[in-house]
Amino acid sequence: EVRLVASGGGSVQAGGSLRLSCTVSGFTFDDSDMKWFRQSPGKECEFVSTISSDGFASYADSVKGRFTTSLDNAKNVVYLQMNSLKPDDTAVYYCSSVYTPRDCWGQGTQVTVSS
Distance from first CA to last CA of the chain, Å, rounded? Predict the structure, then answer.
């Protein structure tokens, strides 16, 4: 069974940092690029980042230079390190793979950034 469980969200002030984790089971990172998406109330699902099994990553312009995604193959965990957080980063964050029915789906984790 394929499972993706995101965790690590919370409430921080602007300028703070959080590290999100996504623990996967049922497949390996060799099978799928891993992506992060986010969705705020009333807004569409937004791409955040993607990383391939060999570690090549790319980011949305809105987070480039502030967020970093990485893989831990031994633990089957994909991370999203978020620095210099802004109120606009407030959203539910989801991890995604080729096995995910749609982008902002499953157990996300809430990130709230206050000004």
Answer: 40
The DSSP bridge pattern shows strands 18-25 and 77-82 to be antiparallel
Tell me the average pLDDT of the chain.
96
Q: What whole-number distance in Å separates Cα of residue 64 and Cα of residue 82? A: 10
10 Å CB burial of residue 44 (0-12, 13-18, 19+) is exposed
Give percent of the chain above pLDDT 70: 100
Q: Which residues contact 106 (CB under 8 A, 6 or more apart)?
A: 4, 5, 6, 94, 95, 100
- In the chain the beta strands, taken as DSSP E runs, fall at 3-7, 10-13, 18-25, 34-39, 46-51, 57-59, 67-72, 77-82, 91-96, 109-114
Contacts of 27 (CB under 8 A, 6+ apart): 2, 97, 99
